[in-house]
Structures are given as structure tokens and as C-alpha cells.
Amino acid sequence: MTELNNVSGHSQEEKVNKNNLSENKRSDQSMFIALPPDTPIDMPVQNLQANPNLYGRSKKIATQAPNVLLRRLFIFIVSISLTVYASYEMNLVFNSFGMTALGLMILVIFTILFFWIAFSFASSLGGFIEQLSKKGGLSLGIDPKEPLPALHKKTAVLMPTYNEDPHRVLAGLKAIYDSIQATGQGEHFDFFILSDTTNPDVWVEEEAAFLRFREQTKGHNHIFYRRRYKNTDRKAGNLAEWVRRFGGGYDHMLTLDADSLMEGDTIVRICSAMERHDGVGLIQTLPVIVNGTTLFARLQQFAGRVYGPTIAYGLAWWHGSESNYWGHNAVIRVKAFAEQAGMPHLPAVRKPFGGMIMSHDFVEAALMRRGRWAIHMVPALHGSYEESPPSLTDIAVRDRRWCQGNLQHAMIIPTKKLSWISRIHMLTGIGAYAMSPLWLLFLLVGIMVSLQALFVKPEYFTGTDRVLFPNWPQVDPVLAKYVFILTMLVLLAPKILAWIALLFNEDLRKGCGGATKALSSIFLETFIGGLIAPIAMLIQTTAVTSILLGYDSGWNAQRRDVGHIPFKDVVRDYWRHMAFGVIMGLGAWEVSTSLFFWMTPVLLGLLLAIPLVWVTSSQRFGVFCMKIGLLIIPEETARPDILRRDRIEKRRVMDMEVQDAFSTLLSNPKLIALHIALLPAERSKGDPINADYLVGMVKLKESDSQEQAMQALTSNEKSALLGSRKAIERFLNLPYFS
């Protein structure tokens, strides 16, 4: 067979290649138009030091709740009152006989940490009240019990993707497409796959998946694909490029993430609300985490489903029309986004704070609100979903990037005319990461206070006046216990409130296995979460430190599929956390046994870091919990339509894998024609020279066959050649075997 294939000019593979090439030339290129005609719109880059252009809009927001100021006063009065009382009691614990430097330090850190949890408690309390109210958090006239409204305007559904598994991404998008079609209003939606993919194999596979998507749905006039050849400004730049090029043809855009799912019914209702309220710039849904199989993912999933609504209702309750944007599962008015959300590059300060804005979603919402557009969250509207990373390791990788983006917001807070609520959003994002190093510092200062008591000679008679009774320096253990109990009550109160709210929500209660099973799941989640917390503290502290030292997080694709993590990899990644726990434990024991037992919850999590991460990364333990009815959610006991559609689509592609780009092209003549039709113009004289392209062309010239060329090319060279018609034609003219 090999000899037959090697016959000069007459092998079967050569005939296929020549037929492919001739078919490419004969093909009607209109069949492979992957994009609609350009409908450009201006999207100016915003000047953060200047007043925004308001285009004559009124300062009054029509959709703002009339009593929102009272709600905000409630949040801050409760938070501040609790913090003042707790700080007063903590001062009595450490400084009852006079202020010391360490006593002052621990008081300041405690005050900041306690305000953080008190603020969360106050917001959750507002959310709890809102959940139990008759309105149930519904706003903007969105009521899922009402008949589905009719749409009149056009919405673009945007799926940005970066080196993701295209089969998985397009399966989810097709589920959304079919769900929208089922509403009978599919003609009001166009779908765009916006690729920033750099991996050449994934790039070509995306094009193949796009072709299949179109053929399956017959949606050639509504489904489009665009790949950028320069990944300027990452995801923010990807969306901005679409807005500037195509935004003029659409009233709204629905932004998705690679793991996003949304019911067609939900999408139609939000788009209808946007049509009815001209002053609304963005409506954010509350995505529910689903499809978790590992124990870690199921913990995240349960917490998001049970505690998440209470938190989200609270945020919507006091944010009003100045809510936030999480970057996906939200409908945005294109006019508002183009007008106000052009991302500037930050002034050149020490890396990584300068340059492009990484966590752009917070900033985009803040700038639209600065331009007097309303930003709303609708937590009561179901049908919005996403997935959780399968392990602590995976979430740490993502968290490192988010950490950098949130710390970068320190440069955004001084923006001129920014709403004070938007500034709080930024501070909250920064605080989410700053609390970890503060918590660690609090523990270390506590050890130092104990060391001071052990080694520093106390002064029993202080001052110049002679006194009859000495001042006995001591830490009041009874008062310290009360402060600890108060702290734990405030910390755990949002979970308690969420469970009480669950009792009044029949669907949620039954979907979580009943009140008792739900409470048992809360105990399990709290226990394991408490053990993971000190590990996460060290992870985030390390991230904050490295960012402040100037190390960039880069841009890597997120691992979404569940995969076994070898135990040796867990040991490699977490032995330092375990060693740190051993050192802290030995130090605390040497200083004081009471200090050791006080630090036991933290030490236990660190000492168990390796087995804890390994166990929570396991599907086996996650499935076991599901079988015994723990950590379950309603979306598992009564699967919504969009999740059923998604499961069917993913099963269809579960055996498909990303192949070599050239092999994928050779297997599909239509794909070759599409790929060539989408390529940019060839390089002109004076354009930048691509060294990978030059080396790749030399390798093609020196290769005797396609097989030899594929083995010789590096990933960068392959990517460069796939961007050139001349290179592809030269490759196709080679015999398959030498």
C-alpha cells in the first residue's frame, strides 16, 4: 500500500488534495461569507480625567428605586454600628490597661476585617428581607409568570472564545440558539462567535465547528464567525472591535462566557425590558453554577445556589440602578456601551497596574453609570447558568488574573464624575483580595502579642504617682471568647439567613433535598470551606504579593473539563502550605498552648492542605455526596430545559477532539474554502515581517510531503502559514506521502 501511495503524481491522497484545491477555486465564495455587512458605530476611548459626554441625558434615573437612599443608610448604619461595638470589645481584650503598639496594630486590623464581614452581613440582611417580600426582587417589569412579551428590536448574542474547546463551546451556544428558537422570536437574534484563539489547531477546529453549527441549524443568515489576528486588549478589545465594526446594526448585545447557558425565555424577557426602558444600559442576571461533579465544584455550586440569591437580592436592593456587571450573562444596550465604555490604557506606572484594564467589566458598568445609564441586576429571574472550575488549583489560576484586575482598579477609583456606588464596587473588589494578607497579618500579630507577654517584663506600677494596687497586664479570656462568638455569628449569619429563606421557597427547599438535608449540606459546606479558607488565604496573599512586586498574570485558557489531578502534582503545588502550617503550629505551641488551640482552625486547614485539595478535586467524592442527597440543587433534581439541551449537544460532541490543523483542513473541502475566504490580505511591501512565516515557508519548500511538513512545523510557524493563501496552496500542492 505504501508503494502505491508513493507513485509519483498518482497517489490517492494527491488526487484528493488537487480536487480540494480546484474545488476551492470553483466554490461560490458567497456560501462562505462568515460575517454580515459592516455596520460601524463610533466608540470613543474614555478620558478618565475629564467629564463624560452625557449627550443631554437627565441626571434623574427613571428606574431608580424611590427609597434607595434609605436602603443604603440601613446598610452602612448596621455595618458601622456592629464594627464599632466589636472594636470596642476587642480594645478591652488587648488594651484595657493602656494602648500598646501591637495592641493598636491588632485593633486596626481587626476593625478592617470585622467591617468587611459586617458589611456582607448587612447586605445579606437586606437581601433576606427582599427575598421574603411579595415583590421578590422583581424589577423593570420583568415577571416570569406573565406571558412572553413580543420583541421588536435586534440583539446580537456574543460568544468570545480564547483557545477553548470549540466542540464544547459551540454545543452550549447551540443549546442557547435552540432555546431562543423555541420562543418563536429567533428572527430578532444574531449569533457571533468572536475568536481570539492563538492555537492553530483550535483555530481551524473552531471554523469546522462553526460550519457544522450552521449546517445543523440552517441559520446561515443569523450565525457568524470572526477571528482576530491581533489580540489587542484581550476580551475587552475583542468586544470593542465587534461594537465598532458591527454595533450599528443592533440595539442590544448579550455577552456570554465560554461556559454560559441561558434560557431563551429569560433572554427574551430581559431584551423586552431593555426595549421598554430607554434609560437602562445593562441588565445583569444571576448565573447559577451547574454541572459540578467534583466535590470542590459541588461545594461552589451549592453555596452559589443557596447563599447566592440572598447576597444578590441584597446587592440589587441597595445598589438600585447603580449595580455591577460580571462580564457575562447580561444584556447591554449597544448605544450605551459604545458611548461610554471605550477602555483607555492606564498611565504607564510600574507593571502590572499600567496598560490595558484587565477586569474591564466592573469598569464598563461604572463608566456607563457615569454617563447616566442605569445598571440593574435582576436576581429573581431564573434561567441563567455557568460552571465552576473543578478544583482549588484551577480556581487559583483564574483568581490570580482576577486579583491583578481588581487591584488595578485602584487606578480607576479617582475617575472624574464616577458614582460613589461605583467606587464602592471597586473598593469591594480590591477588598476581596486585600483581606487575605490582612488576615494573615492579624494571625502573625496575635503571635507577636503572645511573644511579648512571654518575654517582655511587665510594669505593674505605671506612671509617676504611687498607687496602692498594680495594673496586671492580661488578655481577658472571657471577653475574648465573647468577641470570637460575635465574630462567628456575623460571619455565619448570611448562611443562616439563606437557610431560613430556603424554608419559605418550596422549589428551592425540595430541590436541595428538604430542610434537613439542606441544613446538613450547609454544615458540610461550612466545615470544608473553613478548612479550605486558610489555604485560599495563602494563595491570595501570594498572588497579591507577586502582583505588587510587578509580576503579570498573563492570559491563559481556563480548564473547564474535569480531569484527574495526580497526587504528586497536588504535593508539588501545596507542600509549602502544609510546611507553613507546621511552622506556625510549632511556633504557637512553643509560645503558648492557649495560642495553639486558638489557632487550631487555621492550622488544621494548612496541615491538611494536600489531602484536602486532592479529595475535593475528586469526582468520586462529589458523586458520593450527590448519591446520599448532600450538596444537591434544584437544577439537578428537576433539570431545566436549557440544561437538557446542553447535555444532549455535549453528548454529541463528547468524542470529538482537536486535531492537527492541516489534517482537519484536508478532511473537509468546504472547510478549506471557508478558511481561505476568511483570511486577511497578503502582506504588502513595508508591512512588518513575520519570522515564523518565513521559516515556515522554507520548511514547506524543503518538505517532500504534507506529512513531513506537518512534523517539521512548530505551532507558531503553523499559525503563520495558516494565515496565508500562498502558504496553504503550497501545502496542498504537496503529496501526502513522500
TrEMBL record:
Against Pfam families, the record matches this protein to: Glyco_trans_2_3
Where does the record place it? Answer: Cell inner membrane
Q: Cite the residue spans of the region called Disordered.
A: 1-25
Compositionally biased intervals (Polar residues) = 1-10
- Biased-composition ranges, Basic and acidic residues, are 11-25
Q: In which pathway does it act?
A: Glycan metabolism; osmoregulated periplasmic glucan (OPG) biosynthesis
Q: What range(s) does the Glycosyltransferase 2-like domain occupy? A: 254-480
Residues annotated as transmembrane? 69-88, 100-125, 426-451, 482-505, 526-551, 595-617
Establish whether keyword Coiled coil is in the entry: no
What this protein is called in its record is Glucans biosynthesis glucosyltransferase H
Q: Which family does it belong to?
A: Belongs to the glycosyltransferase 2 family. OpgH subfamily.
Q: Which domain of life is it from?
A: Bacteria
